[in-house]
Design a protein that fits this description.
With 487 residues, the protein is mostly beta strands. The chain is 6% helix and 49% strand. The protein is built from two helices and 44 strands. The strands form ten sheets. Strands 1-44-43-42-41 form a five-stranded antiparallel β-sheet, with no helix packed on it. Strands 5, 6, 7, 8 and 9 form a five-stranded antiparallel β-sheet that branches. A hairpin with a 2-residue loop joins strand 21 and strand 22 (267-277). The longest helix is centred in the N-terminal third of the chain and has 25 residues, at 29-53.
Length: 487
């Protein structure tokens, strides 16, 4: 059963007005023309006077229309062990375009559309294998199932689709066994190549015709078309490197930049940025960073990241700007004590972040959260918007930026709520230019990462009122709910 609630603007009509005809006189054609001309002149003078002496009305902003491009969601509820479906919805109206059962009883990552195909990753429970990830490919136009691949394990990162291949990193059911990398042919799901990888977890990225794999104490490059080894950084630096951070490396032309922890017998764990040559794996530079690291981004020729230091007395984040050619720190911006920043998001020449108050003994502080923007060149604070003491915590979802608006996601329910019960949250939209609050809206906290597309913010959640899931489309311009789709 599905329910669609569509918010549409009210329409108004005007009654047709009749105009009485007046017979023209053949004896006085000039007088009739003169009268008509005089009336036109009088009307023009009247309009001109109104324009001169009437106050100009304030400009009323108009919300941009929402694109009709399809949006794709997996819908179901893990706590009900209910099979999940993949749905395609019209982005502007929420109309169901197609729907297909996946057979999965748990969700994976959000569906990915590429090359006329939509890829969906779900989990299935069986007697032989407690849970395994299954990747399915659906035709984007009508939802027909093209192929599916049973992994016999768990996939920890969304698939990467490139060059006619689909890359998966996964771990087989036995946690003591190594991870597995597999490349599938996008046309039919057949295995192009498969190789074991001795890491508990791994993250993939593509660069220069190579698949770069990070995880545990490994950093390995494989040829993307064959899976053959190209180079192995951990093997070449076995006495110096340990505990490589799982975040995928950032690709910058012929350079890789990633975050890792350097460990040796005479040195405690130190967080660092490391830059390597893509083709050889040779070290280009290293840069020590204090505290644990967020994902690094590249914007305007500069690297930006957030580090957070935790100790018994306080928690504090620092934003770093780094020269990508040398690793030199260009500037830092320290957060106030007991403020934690999200990963940075590029917004033109600025960098935006959300902040949360401290978390003490697992309970969010009532000091609230906010959002801020920094000048990308200097680190100067451009604006800071406090989102109120009633906001208990800012979720660790990086802000979304689109159409001159930054959206911050906030939690109003301590402890994250319970399964099946709507967790109260908010989304706050601010102007990128000055941080002015445009609108603020209560929403159930999403069970999947929010999506911004075509002038709208789409959220997905499941709760008591919508046990199989509910998609809500919110217009970015004014925060109005455009439509809701319930499974």
């Amino acid at each position: 059963m599905q329910t669609l609630a569509l918010a549409t603007p009210a329409r108004s009509g005007a009654a047709a007005r009749g105009r009485a005809g007046r017979p023209r006189s053949r004896r006085q054609p000039f007088s009739v023309i003169a009268i008509a001309a005089a009336m036109v002149c009088a009307l023009a003078l009247s309009l001109a006077a109104c324009a001169l002496f009437s106050p100009s009305p304030a400009a009323t902003p108009t919300a941009s229309p929402v694109s009709s491009a399809p949006v794709y969601f997996l819908m179901g509820a893990e706590y009900l062990a209910q099979p999940w479906d993949i749905v395609a919805l019209n982005g502007a109206m929420g109309r169901l375009l197609w729907r297909h059962a996946t057979g999965g009883d748990g969700s994976g990552m959000a569906p990915i559309a590429a090359g006329g195909v939509v890829y969906a990753l779900t989990t299935r429970t069986s007697a032989a294998i407690y849970q395994e990830s299954v990747l399915q490919a659906f035709r984007a136009s009508d939802g027909a199932l093209l192929w599916e691949y049973f992994t016999m394990g768990h996939v920890y990162q969304e698939p990467i689709i490139s060059g006619g291949l689909v890359y998966l990193n996964m771990r087989v059911a036995d946690i003591q066994r190594p991870g597995v990398l597999v490349a599938l042919r996008a046309s039919n799901g057949d295995v192009a190549w498969r190789t074991a990888f001795p890491a508990a977890f791994s993250a993939l990225t593509l660069a220069g015709g190579l698949v770069i794999v990070t995880g545990d104490n490994r950093l390995t490059a494989l040829h993307a078309t064959t899976g053959a080894a190209a180079w192995d950084y951990a093997a070449a630096h076995a006495t110096k490197v340990g505990g490589i951070v799982i975040n995928p490396p950032l690709v910058m032309g012929s350079m890789l930049v990633f975050e890792y922890i350097a460990v040796s017998l005479d040195m405690p764990g130190v967080f660092q940025l490391l830059a390597l040559d893509v083709s050889t794996g040779d070290t280009l530079w290293t840069a020590p960073i204090s505290g644990s690291l967020s994902s690094t981004i590249l914007s305007g020729g500069t690297l930006y990241l957030t580090s957070t230091q935790f100790d018994q007395s306080h928690t504090r984040s620092t934003v770093y700007a780094v020269n990508p050619l040398s690793g030199a720190t260009l500037w830092t911006y320290p957060a106030p004590t007991n403020k934690v920043y999200s990963a940075p998001v590029a917004a033109g020449s600025a960098i935006t972040l959300t902040e949360s108050g401290p978390t003490l003994n697992g309970a969010p502080s009532a000091t609230g959260g906010g959002a801020l923007a920094l000048d990308g060149a200097t680190g100067r604070l451009l604006w800071h918007t406090q989102l109120g003491a009633t906001v208990l915590d800012v979720s660790f979802i990086s802000p979304l930026v689109s159409g001159g608006v930054i959206c911050a996601f906030l939690s109003l329910t301590p402890g994250g709520g319970t399964p099946g019960v709507a967790t109260l949250g908010q989304v706050a939209a601010m102007s990128l230019s000055d941080g002015a609050l445009r609108w603020r809206k209560d929403i159930p906290l999403a069970n999947a990462s929010p999506l911004v597309q075509g002038g709208a913010l789409y959220t997905f959640t499941y709760n008591d009122h919508s046990p199989l899931g509910e998609v809500t489309a919110i217009r970015l311009g004014d925060g109005a709910t455009v439509w809701q789709y319930k499974a």
